[in-house]
Amino acid sequence: MKSNKKAIIIGAGVSGLAASIRLAHLGYSVKVLEQMPTYGGKMGEWVKGGYRFDTGPSLFTMPQYVMELLAIDGQKYVPFHYEKLDIVCNYFWQDGTRLQAHSDIQKLAEAFEAQLGEPKENILRALEKSEEKFKITNHVFLEKSLHRWSTYLNLGTLKSMLRIGKVDIFKKMHKQNAAFFKNPKTIQFFDRYATYNGSNPYQAPATLNVIPHYEFGFGAYAPKNGIRSIANALYQKAILLGVDFRFETKVSNVEKQSSKYIVNDLENADILICNMDVAAAALGPLKTLISSKKTKYEPSSSALIFYWGIKQSFPQLDTHNIFFTDNYEKEFNSIFSEKVIDDDPTVYINITSKTNKNDAPEGCENWFVMVNAPYADGQNWIELISEARNKIIVKLSNLLNCNLEELIEVENKLTPLLIEERTSSHKGALYGSSSNKLMSAFFRQANFSREHRGLYFCGGSVHPGGGIPLCLLSAKIMTEKIANDN
Ligand code: FAD
Question: Of 98, 331, 360, 430, which has the fewest CB atoms closer than 10 Å, so is most exposed?
């Protein structure tokens, strides 16, 4: 299909990039307006002193969605390489227990039995149930619009609906895990998957127990040149398809005049796509087009990240590493109820130099050290950040038997306020709204406006949600609707 219509996309995040590729491929004339000097949004990069850091996402699953975009026209070649990780993540508990989460499910189950005394059948059965949830929900909740009748009048959807009881919408994630596993550490391991979309396992529906299937059914991957290379490849593809990018161009005002959208009083478009956070858009440039009700949701959690260039290498660490808190319930309570960083936070370390030697000088490692944090809500961040930094240093120094402070040779940080400032994410949330409530998925902004023809939405704050794979699916669902409407 060819169209001579003009589309403007607000934001060059990973979803905006995907949307630009899809629309250019459909024949639209596409212009992307991005407030920052570069593309990628949260998928940023920081380089200093021989170290390279991905500043946002670190875990890459479902690479096929990226490959699908790069091969969309079957001809304009853009290289993008990645490898599957054998060890998905290393887990450390403060009593000295360790677990290597193998991508091979049999090895994973054996490790649980050997290290935690969890019967391996429990792990295999839990992953089977996770896969079953995926098969029921994927085509309905993730690959289609939840807001179009056509989704529900489809045989596949009807089949899924008949099995909907199996996705455990009415159970709580933690309760289900607590009833299923023997060892509290196994429960903690499976509860952690709620954080993959910024939710609280003690509140979120057990439907989120689908998430382990993404990691163990499909695998975790490391892009050869870091996560940033996803944004680089998508940008190159968009350029090859003729997309026009304007950086340092903040959209501050949009008006609708008959069937056209007038952006910043200058540009006009037949189709307007909002990749920026929908709540920020409703409070800002799209305030006359989006209801202020769209800002009334519980945001997902945010994060505090330290980027540390470490002048030593740690053979006991891998690409992904988790150092659990002793009291997970208290940590989630701190984040979601008290809205502070817990005083014994679970610490995640991502080290891309484990697979990509160019990311750190020889004998050194690039540490991305993250703790979950509440969304920004007027806290005293200077105090919270300084306390958290001290606690992280003490915790890791003890567990890794080193003086971490002395090993840090370059440092930077990202905070909820900086996430909000740099990407306009409402309250600095990582994934738009949380999935803590029963029907959260249905209350997310649809991929199109019911009130304004020609206005569409994609990205982590709208259906089907945050995280790289869902953001890419969001652009796909949205483009299918655009093709259908025009
Ligand atoms: P964004 O990346 O937020 O892009 C929106 C773009 O819109 C930005 O470039 C912004 O500058 C621009 N914009 C906003 N307002 C305007 C305006 N008025 N005018 C012009 N431009 C504007 N996901 C995973 O899959 N795995 C992970 O491990 C993971 N970890 C994460 C860790 C961190 C620290 C963060 C921050 C996120 C993480 N995520 C992870 C989530 C993932 O990064 C996001 O879901 C995804 O990148 C969001 O993409 P997006 O296109 O929706 O939005």
Answer: 98
- Rounded distance from Cα 299 to ligand 1 centre (Å): 14
Whole-model pTM? 0.96
Ligand 1 pocket by C-beta < 6 Å: which residues?
10-16, 33-36, 41-43, 56-59, 250-251, 275-276, 285, 303, 305, 419, 423-425, 430-431, 459-460, 466-468, 471
The DSSP letter of residue 378 is S
228 within 8 A of 356, measured Cβ to Cβ: no
Distances (CA, A) of 230 to 22, 39, 58, 334, 415: 16, 11, 11, 34, 23
DSSP 345: -
Q: Indicate the Cα dihedral angle 176, 58, 477, 205, nearest 10°.
A: 10
Cβ proximity of 173 and 209 under 8 Å: yes
CA 313–ligand 1 middle distance (angstroms): 30
- CA–CA separation, 55 and 49 (whole Å): 16
467 Cα to the center of ligand 1, angstroms: 8
State how far the Cα of 411 lies from the Cα of 51, in Å rounded to an integer. Answer: 10
Tell me if the bond preceding 464 is cis, omega within 30° of 0: yes
Smallest CA separation from ligand 1 atom 47, residue:
42
Query: Which of 412, 411, 413, 415 has its CA nearest to residue 373?
Result: 415
How far from 399 is each of 93, 144, 368, 388, 395, CA to CA, in Å?
Answer: 9, 45, 17, 16, 6
Q: Please give the structure tokens belonging to residue 239.
A: 């350029």
CA–CA distance, 10 with 19 (Å, rounded to integer):
11
Task: Determine the distance separating the centroid of ligand 1 and the alpha carbon of 56, expressed in angstroms.
Answer: 8
Whether pLDDT at 164 is above 80: no
Asked if 136 and 165 touch (Cβ cutoff 8 Å), the reply is no
DSSP 17-50: HHHHHHHHHHT-EEEEE-SSSSSBTTS-EEEETT
Confidence of residue 150 (pLDDT cuts 50, 70, 90): low
For the stretch 19-66, pLDDT in tens is 999 999 999 999 999 999 999 999 999 999 999 999 999 999 999 999
